[in-house]
Amino acid sequence: MTDxxxxxxPLPTREGTLKLKSRASAPATTAAPxxxxxxxxxxxxxxxxxxxxxQAGSEAPRRSRSPDDTPRPRDERPPRDAGDKPxxxxxxxxxxxxxxRPARRDGASAERPYRERAPRPDGERPRxRDERPPRxxxxxxxxxxxxxxxxxxxxxxxxxxxGAPRPAPAPSPLAADGSIRLSKRMTELGLCSRREAxxxxxxxxxxxxxRVVSELGSRVQPxxxxxxxxxxxxxxxxxxxxxxxxxxxxxxxxxxxxxQPASVLITAENRWLDDxxxxxxxxxxxxxLAPAGRLDIDSIGLLVFTQDGRIARQxxxxxxxxxxxxxxxxxxxxxxxxLALLNHGLSLDGEALRPAKVSxxxxxxxxxVLREGKKRQIRRMCELxxxxxxxxxxxxxxxxxxxxxxxxxxxxxxxxxxx
Length: 419
Hints:
It is extended, with a radius of gyration of 48 Å. The protein is α+β, with helices and mostly antiparallel strands and 419 residues long. The termini are far apart. Among the domains are: 180-237, RNA-binding S4 domain (Structural Genomics Hypothetical 15.5 Kd Protein In mrcA-pckA Intergenic Region, Chain A, Roll); 241-412, Pseudouridine synthase. The relative contact order is 0.08. It has 6 helices and 16 strands. The strands form 4 sheets. Strands 6, 7, 8, 9, 12, 13, 14, 15 and 16 form a 9-stranded mixed beta sheet that branches. Strands 3-2-5 form a 3-stranded antiparallel beta sheet. The protein is 12% helix and 16% strand. Strand 14 (388-397) and strand 15 (400-401) form a beta hairpin. The longest helix has 10 residues, at 194-203.
């Protein structure tokens, strides 16, 4: 049950329903005279019959600032105090005389009458910013924009914006005190790769000036002695490098478009029988094995797989200068000017290519020696001079030759072989 009292239903009367009393009794004082009825936009002031049935159709009393609660006409307001701005009705401002200009707020008078500027001669126009008179020789140096830095150069000497985004500044590996990360220093010294350096540091296999350093992110000075422990050297020696003669139809890296990666050919059955290396094949040799370079799916020849980060950096690093030799079978004619362009003068993707060594092997085969490896570089170079490549084979990387390695077979990099 609730505490809300129930309302009794109205009792029937002669007039039909019982009249309800008003919730607030009318005041005993004399009520204000009723305002004249308004129409139009003032109908909303009439009270609702649902809220006040006894006052339905009447207008709500209007609050006034006068003490007797009676609206005061506009013209019966008391006069303003002395010093106030004199009142005037809306639209009572008189027209200004010809040439008259309104006074300023600070009380100062205008220096010249309004609209009395002398007309300009025909053809004359306002002086532009870049048409200022030359600065006098004895005027002295231009003022600097700031006291801390040099003066800003003139606008015509500033570098024009080309629309390209500004490249992010390359962070320097050296800190304010000249130190460098230990893993970065180990890579510079050729001890291992960055990933391998972090692994050896965590295991405590790295010494700096004879002291073991096992904390990642440690920094050293360039002149400090960094050594790899015997255990780290042994782990590096166990990392293998494999040379594969890739046939047509295999991709260098991950599988794509239904084609298998060339790494599936590295099995015990596909090892070359004439391999002179004494390394025994283990399944662990596939762990961390990655291609150091690439060959197109339609190209054949020498492809390197390695677990050694030092060799990978040497072959595909940004500062790599290892030569790669290709034998390319082409169709089409090539004059002396085209051959000169193949050696130097072509650009791909908006970048000039490094100088190459290109010469004829026979009447339909060219020999390319490159120091870079852009995507499909040789094929695109030949297209620029009107040639079509019908066959491409890589025969040498650095000082390592493909030799007699059969297609689809592989061998280990010998202990006496270096790129």
